[in-house]
Design brief:
single chain; 4-stranded mixed sheet; 5 helices; about 120 residues; alpha+beta
Length: about 120
Amino acid sequence: MLRWPSSDQVIEQARRWATAQQQQNPDLLAVGVFGSYGRGDAGVGSDLDLVLILETCDLPIWERLLRWNTSSLPLACDLLIYSRKEWQTLPGWNPRLADALAHDTRWLAGSPSAWLRR
């Protein structure tokens, strides 16, 4: 019999993963969970949506994913990876996504409020 992990288990494992990634990658400013786990309405079959914010990143979107090993997380995972500048300008070029992330994201490691105005 297969058993789906509880939301609390998923968030705790994601928090441990985020903390470890931040310790290993000094350019990683923040990691947040959004989507159903961010809103708190995840259920069986939900995937884990994470947003990572880096100090800088010049790589194309598809290459950014290669750096992050999510195999230790308990669920399939989707990543959004932004530089600080991209994160700060997101409302101007994708207001709908920026609004959804502003409302749904729970920060697991770091937080934009700590460096937003630097």
